Amino acid sequence: METAADLFQRFEQLNAIGASLSNERNLDRLLENILLAAKAITHADGGTLYRMSDDRKWLRFAIVRTDSLGIAYGGTTGQPISAQFKDLPLYRADGEANNSLVAAYSAIHAETVNIADAYFEAVSGLTTTGATILSGIDDLPASINFWRTQLVWLGGMGLIVLAVAVLPLLGIGGRQMFKAETPGPMKDSKMTPRIAETAKGLWGVYAGITVCCALSFRWAGMTWLDAIMHTFSTMGLGGFSSHDASFGYFNSVAIETVAVVFMLIAGMNFATHFLAVTGRSLRPYRSDPEAGWFLAVTLGSVLAIAVFLVWHGIYLDFWVALRHSAFNVISIATTTGFATVDYALWPMFAPLWMLFLCSFATSAGSTGGGIKMIRALLLYKQVNRELVRAIHPNAVYQVRIGSEVVPVNILFA
User: Fold this and answer.
1) Which helix (H) or strand (E) holds 411?
2) Residue 179 needs a FRET pair 20 to 30 A away by CA distance; which of 40, 239, 307, 342 works?
């Protein structure tokens, strides 16, 4: 929070800029004063000031400052702008505006670009958080919405896992990077002899399911563009949409059903999907304890909240309640964030239970967030073991997940 001294200092800086505009005859010094004052007011580490060329086709670096790197060119420093700072073209070769550069876009359209908002949106996408500060999403250019949702898809399986699949081509090992990116006990398992093959296999399954999801959305009634964008968000469990109303925009049972199915698929361990695909068998799903618990807890919650909503008179028809419960409960439980209705208006227990689910429901190795179902299972079994040992101190009780005994180092990790 700003103090009175901070506000007074800002007032003095603005006053100094006003005085410079009135009295300063040296243009370089005037521009430098403006840049330094703007830097001080915004507490920025650096700043750049451009000047437009006489033919109004280029932006030229006039002053460059970065305090942390000791960079100071142009202005009154006596240091000419380095040759590495090339002029920025305002127009492409075909004569169209060069909107790919932030500075060029601002100069051409006389609009301010909020870098902080763009950074927030990009990080939210890459981390599959799904939080957004944008409004009027329906009116955004299709390219912006496409890029937002593609970031979710790339962040879902992990850019590092993708890189691991490519690094061996460069002669670089990727096991440590893979283990750092992969959540849960899955990081210590080998699905193939080589880590690069494992990474390629995971991304292959991820891409294959993505194609199936896109085709399903298109079949359900979406346009190709909407189908691809919502596929990216669904598979990455990130929740970005090309519409302000999210899936409520479509108001389609078929589209919601497709989303529910693929959110559940993305909420499972992709290692399990990989083993099922390569083995051409459903046995990996039956032997994966996480998958069973994930489906049981999530689908059980869907049914319970549907009954709860009918009981409280929110919906008079059970099937309507089940429709909205299924989509919104699974969306929140898998940390996706899509919505068809404003569930904040439901009785308090329902949204609280949904938020509770999102803290643990998805599987390790999925694209979802939270502590993962495997850790919730281990926590439950560990608490149960300690209670048994308190009652029977001499009892030998091993924690098992499925038929496997959980090593002590994983229990206390």
Assistant:
1) helix 408-411
2) 239
CB burial of residue 10 (10 Å; 0-12, 13-18, 19+) = middle
The span from the CA of 42 to the CA of 308, in Å, is 50
The distance in angstroms from the start CA to the end CA of the chain is: 39
The per-residue pLDDT for range 174-206, each reduced to its tens digit, is: 444 444 444 444 444 555 556 667 777 788 889
Residues near 382 by beta carbon (within 8 Å), at least 6 away in sequence: 399, 411
Rg over alpha carbons for the chain, rounded to the nearest Å, is 27
Strand pairing category for 46-52 and 58-66: antiparallel
- What are the DSSP calls for 1-28, one per residue? ---HHHHHHHHHHHHHHHHHHHH---HH
Q: Read off the tokens for 196.
A: 């690069």
pTM of the model: 0.77
**Cα 208 from chain centre:** 21
Residue 30 class from Cβ within 10 Å (0-12 exposed, 13-18 middle, 19+ buried)? middle
Give residue-wise pLDDT tens across range 97-112. Answer: 888 888 888 888 888 8
Q: What is the dihedral of CA 165, 237, 290, 160, to 10 degrees?
A: 20
Distance CA 408, CA 388 (A): 17
CB distance 265 to 184 below 8 Å = no
Q: How do strand 71-74 and strand 88-89 relate by DSSP bridges?
A: unpaired
Q: What six digits make up the tokens of 363?
A: 């599987």
Residue 405 burial class via C-beta count within 10 angstroms: exposed 0-12, middle 13-18, buried 19 and up: exposed
DSSP 81-94: PPTTSPPEESB-TT
pLDDT tens-digit series, residues 119-140: 899 889 888 888 888 888 998 8
C-alpha span between 83 and 106 (Å, rounded): 23
| Predicted confidence (pLDDT) per residue in 341-383, tens digit | 999 999 999 999 999 999 999 988 788 888 888 888 888 888 8
For residue 291, give both structure tokens.
């998958």
Q: Spell 65-75 as b/e; 16+ CB within 10 A means b.
A: beeeeeebbbb
